[in-house]
Amino acid sequence: MFKKFQPSTDISGQTAVKSSVQRSLRAGLLSQWKIDPDTLESIWPKKENITLVKCRDHISIYALNGEPLFFQHFDGPLYPTLRLLHKYPFILPVVRVDRGAIRFLLAGAHMMCPGFTSKGGWLPPPEEALPAGVAVAIHAEGKEHAIGIGITKLSTEDIKKVNKGVGVEVVTHLGDDLWALQKV
Amino acid sequence: MSAEQATTAAPQPKPPVQVLYCEVCTFPPEYCEFGSRLSKCKEWLKSEHPDLYDRYYSEEALQSKLGTMSLEQQTKLEQEAAKKEAKAEAKADAKMKKKMSSQVQIKRIQRQKNKYVTAIHGLEAFDIDLKKAAKLFAQTFATGASVTKNAQGLDEIVVQGDVSDEVFDMIREEKGVLKGVPESNVELIEEKKKKS
Fold it and tell me: Where, by residue number, does the polypeptide cross the bilayer (chain B) (predicted)?
């Protein structure tokens, strides 16, 4: 999503967000992320007003004091930025890819099923299976921090079954243009 | 990673994890090996955080990383990494060279018999924010200054009035945002209005 994203040309404007919209955003975050209200309060204090940064292709980034916190595509799920995810790694369910996939992930490729099912990869067990279309944190074999954020294209059970083709679409990854955008 | 989640389910806000980022490539240091400036990252980590350096680049760490990969794959990967690094370096060099050779032009353009505007072109090559620079000019000279596209479609700053000498001095003294422009790269040009 953030391939060839140039802040100077691809950001069309910044606006303050209405408080009613902020309330619904807050509710959305609480329902979509594994986060309790107090932690959200420390990320985004109630008093602080968030700004909406509109970008090309219907991407909206929400920033607090110029620091991007989370973003959204159309009305899709809310994704935290990778820096926020590093600070609060528990807010998204985790999947892990093997070492061989890291190189491709950092080049912006989508993650294929075998990367999750091989020895170095990890998927939630059947009782915690994730459906398709869920935001996930992508971790890498032998690494502590998340390497990217993606959205599942198949449910995790299907990934194990099919074991072919794209399993998780990468939304943002280490070193992409959103990563480079530290301040807006 | 799920073990510590269960223990900290208290209603208190969870403190953020402090993540160290490499100052060279901005990645967390464990991912430096996939960046394009590995050797510089290594140097930085060694001098700033020797304990972490030992953790990521000691012999055992390298050995355990080999775990799931065959030797053949590993050597191939290393070669590619070296290649990538060389490429990135060449790119950075070329960029630097281009920067050093690019010119900043201060042009005095005659509008009326005794009315001039000053156009400053080429500042963006030195990573100067044109909008901020225009604001600075507007403030110091108390005139209008704006960022406009010139005939070639490139951005330039147009300041009302003849301030070319003053602008030249400002760039030389590195006032405000006007930083990092070598004096030799600045040239003053005069453009007369064509008689028609």
Answer: none
> How distant is the Cα of A174 from the closest Cα of chain B, in angstroms?
7
pLDDT digits (tens, 9 = 90+) for A52-99: 999 988 899 999 988 899 999 888 889 999 999 998 888 999 999 988
CATH superfamily of B102-191: SUI1-like domain (3.30.780.10)
- Whether B1 and A143 lie within 8 Å, measured CB to CB: no
CA distance A78 to A29: 7
Within A92-147, strands assigned E span: 94-97, 111-112, 135-140
B5 Cβ under 8 Å from any chain A Cβ = yes
Give the CATH number of the domain where residue A150 resides: 3.10.400.20
With an 8 Å Cβ cutoff, is A97 touching chain B? no
Residue contact A175–B35, C-beta within 8 A:
yes
Q: H/E element holding B145? A: strand B145-149
Q: Are B118 and B159 within 8 A, CB to CB? A: yes
Question: What is the tens place of the pLDDT at every residue in B120-152?
Answer: 888 877 878 888 888 888 888 898 888 888 777
Contact A42 B13 (CB under 8 A): yes
B 34-53 near A (Cβ less than 8 A): 34-35
Tokens of A90: 């528990």
Chain A contact present for B30, CB below 8 A: yes
